[in-house]
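Structure (tokenized):
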């Protein structure tokens, strides 16, 4: 079991069974088919507070808020792959997703203030971002991509790739896209082989 790849899927949409959920499930299916161990976190089902900016973590690298995030931290650090899926809400990730991201401030502190490695050093851990938006503008994903870049950096993961789809609005509309589900499935298979690349 020691070589089993652990893939953590973070579901960032409050709409269960919506477009990003569908894409993330396809990607997890691909990874599972290649033997990965799959973990799922539905962010909107967590009971947790946004960051309170209390700065308690400055000294310890630990968050003092006793809520469901306490069981998320170890999962973020154990996973070989962290796949975060969030639709675009007002040119960023959803508030649910952003609240979780802000709560990784203790891991940022460990890395940049306490100079501790938050995960396994050496680029073994990787992050992947899935997103969709209703509109088609060239800059649709820019805000979210920047947030994801710094999220993955804070948790000690390389930002290894993304799947981004424009013009997808209604619940489940992604199923009518000619290639999206297959792309997600293939990306899931490829990440277990370590061959995934940035797409789109
Ligand atoms: C509060 C809210 C804000 C949104 N903001 C944007 C936006 O800024 N740009 C955009 O293209 N689509 C926006 N959308 C549309 C969603 O990104 C789109 O419906 C997406 O397919 C939802 O994905 P899901 O089914 O995974 O939740 C917004 C939707 C909601 C509910």
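Design, position by position:
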């Amino acid at each position: 079991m020691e070589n089993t790849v652990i893939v953590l899927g973070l579901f960032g949409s409050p709409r269960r069974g919506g477009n990003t959920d569908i894409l993330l499930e396809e990607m997890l299916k691909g990874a599972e088919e290649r033997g990965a161990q799959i973990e799922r976190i539905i962010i909107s089902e967590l009971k947790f507070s946004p960051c309170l900016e209390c700065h308690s973590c400055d000294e310890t690298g630990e968050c003092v808020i006793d809520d469901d995030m306490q069981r998320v931290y170890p999962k973020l650090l154990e996973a070989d792959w962290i796949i975060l899926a969030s639709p675009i809400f007002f040119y960023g990730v959803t508030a649910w997703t952003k609240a979780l991201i802000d709560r990784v401030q203790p891991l940022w502190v460990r890395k940049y203030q306490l100079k501790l490695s938050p995960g396994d050093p050496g680029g073994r851990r990787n992050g992947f971002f899935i997103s969709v938006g209703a509109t088609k503008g060239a800059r649709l994903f820019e805000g979210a991509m920047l947030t994801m870049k710094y999220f993955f950096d804070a948790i000690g993961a390389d930002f290894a790739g993304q799947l981004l789809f424009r013009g997808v609005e209604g619940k489940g509309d992604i199923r009518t896209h000619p290639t999206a589900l297959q792309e997600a499935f293939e990306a899931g298979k490829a990440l277990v082989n370590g061959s995934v690349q940035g797409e789109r």
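Reviewer-requested clarification: The longest strand covers residues 158-165. The radius of gyration is 16 Å.
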